[in-house]
Specification:
The protein has 215 residues and is α+β, with helices and mostly antiparallel strands. The chain is built from 7 helices and 9 strands; from the N terminus they run βαββββαββαααββαα. Helices cover 34% and strands 32% of the residues. A hairpin with a 5-residue loop joins strand 2 and strand 3. The longest helix has 16 residues. The protein is elongated, with a radius of gyration of 20 Å.
Length: 215
């Protein structure tokens, strides 16, 4: 039985599947976490693509690939359960956003935890198709360059990786944006909207969630 993997107070627990899909699409580099054969943690940083199947009751599927020599591959073959974490934007929050001074600073962030079993794909044709799907989101024109590479080079590159998919069986989306402190949200939004890239991204999420009035 899968268990929750993150401390998730009710104000930050978001059940909207569209928000989860947006976070994965905007921040595809994920942490794939599993147990080693001795029981210790193993972590790989991998770009992943989420496929949402047409049937609403069907689980979402994550697609990606490991380097074949990555020892996590062997560990997952015997212990296939994995936790995958997508981390979104994050930023410091100053207590100056509150109307009174008896406050403390905090850190706001977005994160998605998903769990499921890893299934490996090692057929060259399947891996070639997988690579095209992964690249399509970032540089779709590269597919033509890939097709023009020498066949022996293509085979060498394909043999160096192992594809995989994970059917998502459990999902937790935490959007920590000070939702429980409405008196500070408009001022926090104003600070974030004028800040760095992470802060501006959090401001957009506040707007997306309807937390603030945007002119």
């Amino acid at each position: 039985m899968l268990s929750d993997s993150i401390y998730l107070p009710k104000p930050f627990d978001d059940k909207n599947p569209e928000h989860a899909k947006t976070l994965m699409r905007e921040h595809p580099l994920a942490l794939v976490i599993s147990n080693s054969e001795s029981g210790g943690p193993m972590v790989s940083h991998l770009p992943l693509k989420c496929e949402v199947l047409s049937e609403p009751d069907e689980p979402w599927v994550l697609w990606g690939h490991f380097a074949r020599i990555n020892p996590q591959v062997q560990a997952l073959q015997s212990k296939p359960q994995a936790l995958v974490i997508f981390n979104g934007p994050h930023a410091y929050m100053s207590p100056s956003v509150y109307p009174d001074l008896v406050r403390v600073p905090t850190w706001n962030y977005l994160t998605l935890h998903v769990q499921g079993n890893v299934e490996f794909l090692d057929d060259p044709q399947a891996k070639d198709q997988l690579l095209k799907q992964l690249i399509a989101d970032h540089e779709h024109v590269y597919a033509q360059q890939w097709r023009g590479l020498p066949e022996d080079y293509q085979q060498k590159m394909l043999s160096a990786i192992v594809g995989f998919k994970i059917r998502i069986e459990h999902r937790q989306l935490k959007l920590k944006l000070n939702q429980h402190r409405p008196e500070a949200q408009q001022a926090m939004f104003a600070q974030y909207a004028q800040g760095d890239e992470n802060m501006q991204s959090l401001a957009r999420w506040m707007s997306r969630l309807g937390m603030v009035d945007v002119p």
